[in-house]
Design brief:
about 375 residues, Butyryl-Coa Dehydrogenase, subunit A, domain 1, Butyryl-CoA Dehydrogenase, subunit A, domain 3, alpha+beta
Length: about 375
């Protein structure tokens, strides 16, 4: 379908596709096998100004929006979800500063982020705080002009590789979610270290580690917004970033569909290509329809968020939920269309299936997305009465 992209948006998508085809596709299997962090690809993306797409021009960015960001994420995801996760997580870690940071914080950190000089990571999840973000145990106590952090964050994308971390910690446990605050912490700060690199089912090119804080002292000025705003900072960040996860779902589903459709044209059974069989045609038809529906929803929500709409939780959750469920089903069906070949590492769809599963889990499980949507519907129907 023609989504009536502007000339700039078309250029961004075309360049992202070119990088995906020329830089990512040839190495994706090796990156997955070796669990190798894609530094060379990140440098290429930096040279293309892709790290600054959504960052305002006054801080060194291109001044575009979340929609343009989704276009890049989708194309990278079509080639390799591990690579796109590394790139997208950078935006996830940047949004707290962009949305709620002080002018001084923006001037200090955003130019290096926009240029790709420094990667970013977002630290929310803990062993006892995943879907229940209010269960954060990491603490930050004010001591003079410094906050002292203690605790551990779990399963943090880009951990150990990134230079800048936006982290949620409790400044007042007695207040529950309202006692959480957000902070900026730089790599190399004494008392801040990393756990081992996790060995994952999928997205193996991305780095996932623990963040460990042991009497880690940071300047008082590194708090984002003010004390007690951490939960709001985290939720508003996720509202902005979930269309990116939706775009990942669209991208990996498209990549799997393309591979399966091409294979179905070439695979001969009973004297004819398997794509000529109605059973296979119907599978491909359902896959193609679902992908187009997911893309339309993700694009529409990304554009809606870029209008500056204040309450986007429901729509953002819908985009993430629908597109990532589509991604899981399409990648599984792509393996089925390709039969035994689809199960082999010689072909890319088994990797896409392994990769796609995380999309239903991170940045809020799809069960939590349904809760978000359901609560929003309750509010809407109550207002109408």
């Amino acid at each position: 379908m023609d989504y009536f992209l502007t000339e700039d948006q078309q250029m961004i998508r075309d360049l992202a596709k070119e990088i995906a085809d020329e830089k990512v596709l040839p190495v994706r299997a090796e990156l997955d096998e070796k669990e190798e962090f894609p530094w060379d690809i990140m440098k290429t993306l930096a040279q293309s100004d892709f790290f600054g797409i959504y960052i305002p021009e006054e801080y060194g960015g291109l001044g575009k929006g979340g929609f343009e960001l989704t276009l890049v994420i989708e194309e990278l995801s079509r080639a390799c979800l591990g690579v796109s996760t590394t790139y997208a997580a950078n935006a996830l870690g940047t949004y707290p500063i962009l949305l709620h940071g002080s002018e001084e914080q923006k001037k200090k950190f955003l130019p290096d982020i926009a240029s790709g000089k420094k990667l970013v990571a977002f630290g929310l999840t803990e062993a006892n705080a995943g879907s229940d973000a209010a269960g954060v145990q990491t603490t930050a106590k004010l001591d003079g002009n410094e906050y002292v952090l203690n605790g551990t964050k779990q399963w943090i994308t880009n951990a150990g590789e990134a230079e800048i971390y936006t982290v949620i910690a409790m400044t007042d446990r007695n207040k529950g979610a309202r006692g959480a605050s957000a902070f900026i912490i730089e790599k190399g700060t004494p008392g801040f270290s990393f756990g081992k690199k996790e060995n994952k089912l999928g997205i193996r090119a991305s780095a996932t580690r623990e963040l460990v804080f042991e009497n880690c002292r940071i300047p008082k000025d590194n708090i984002i917004s003010k004390e007690g705003m951490g939960f709001i900072v985290a939720m508003k960040t996720l509202d902005k970033s979930r269309t990116g996860v939706g775009a990942q779902g669209v991208g990996v589903a498209q990549g799997a569909f393309d591979a399966a459709a091409q294979y179905a044209k070439e695979r001969i059974q009973f004297g004819q290509p398997v794509i000529s069989f109605q059973a296979v045609q119907h599978m491909l038809a359902d896959m193609a329809t679902s992908i187009e529906a997911a893309r339309a929803l993700v694009y529409a929500v990304a554009k809606f968020i870029d209008t500056g709409a204040k309450d986007v939780s429901k729509e953002s959750a819908m985009a993430k939920l629908f597109a990532t469920d589509v991604a899981m089903k399409v990648t599984v069906d792509a393996v089925q269309v390709m039969g035994g070949s689809g199960y082999m590492r010689e072909y890319p769809v088994e990797k896409m299936m392994r990769d796609a599963k995380i999309l239903q889990i991170y940045e809020g499980t799809n069960q939590i997305q349904r809760n978000v949507i359901g609560q929003a519907l309750i509010k809407e129907t109550t207002k109408k009465k």
